[in-house]
Design a protein that fits this description.
The complex is a heterodimer.
Chain A (H helix, E strand, L loop, with lengths): L8 E4 L5 E6 L11 E6 L6 E4 L13 E6 L2 E6 L8 E8 L5 E3 L3 E5 L1
Parallel strand pairs in A: 1-9
Antiparallel strand pairs in A: 2-6, 3-4, 3-7, 5-6, 7-8, 7-9
Chain B lengths: L2 E5 L2 E3 L5 E8 L8 E6 L5 E7 L6 E3 L7 E6 L4 E6 L8 E8 L8 E4 L3 E5 L2
Parallel strand pairs in B: 2-11
Antiparallel strand pairs in B: 1-3, 3-8, 4-5, 4-9, 5-6, 7-8, 9-10, 9-11
Classes of the chains: A mainly beta, B mainly beta.
């Protein structure tokens, strides 16, 4: 199972919006509405931000939103804040009942 | 409060074995699927293995199939990962992560802080 494709880095200024893409295949992202997104700060464990493409866990800011079109899922962060600077990973359930992560995207808040 | 705490990491030589543990608390452990996810130094996340409630379903990444064995002891609220024939590429921080779903699909709603496995001669 090949890793999902994410941009290596994205950046934005405080208050702006950014979008991180996550591209897979019809055997993972495109085949199921089971895409999740994780935020990871340096030296910390990942934190769930979005699950099942669009759902936010309790306690996660509504500035974070998810969507999907075909084989590509996206995470949008609006009203960028300094604390959003982190690595972001997408993940998808697959047709072989495994899980595949994206390579990760480093978000820099300028 | 949901808590997951990994232990058992350390330095081993290529070809050796190691067993990781993950102690869970704050939720009904027996009713959840639990996973192992690893992260090599400076690299991304990689799903390793999953075990469902009652051991009904067990899955492994191709990279560890035949070498790693996941298991659970619901009486002790503990998850295990037996790692045999370790390779340099298995070196990583190993996280246990709870699967928040009880239906199809998977997502990881709680994570431990990880335990570091180093494989070097």
């Amino acid at each position: 199972q090949s890793a999902l494709t994410q941009p290596a880095s994205v950046s934005g200024s405080p208050g702006q919006s950014i979008t991180i893409s996550c591209t897979g295949t019809s055997s993972d992202v495109g085949g199921y509405n089971y895409v999740s997104w994780y935020q990871q700060h340096p030296g910390k464990a990942p934190k769930l931000m979005i699950y099942d493409v669009t759902n936010r866990p309790s306690g996660v800011s509504n500035r974070f939103s998810g969507s999907k079109s075909g084989n590509t899922a996206s995470l949008t962060i609006s009203g960028l804040q300094a604390e959003d600077e982190a690595d972001y990973y997408c993940s998808s359930y697959t047709s072989s009942s495994s899980e595949v992560f994206g390579g990760g995207t480093k978000l820099t808040v300028l | 409060e949901v808590q997951l705490e990994e232990s058992g990491g350390g330095l081993v030589k290529p070809g050796e074995s190691l067993r990781l543990s993950c102690a869970a608390s704050g939720f009904t452990f027996s009713t959840y699927s639990i996973n192992w996810v690893r992260q090599a130094p400076g690299k991304g996340l990689e799903w390793v293995s999953s075990i469902s409630s009652s051991d009904t379903y067990i899955y492994y990444a191709d990279s560890v199939k035949g070498r790693f064995t996941i298991s659970r002891d619901d009486a002790k609220n503990t998850l295990y990962l037996q790692m045999n024939s370790l390779r340099a590429e298995d070196a990583a921080v190993y996280y246990c992560a709870r699967d928040g779903k009880h239906t199809a699909g998977r997502y990881f709603d709680y994570w431990g802080q990880g335990t570091l496995v180093t494989v070097s001669s």
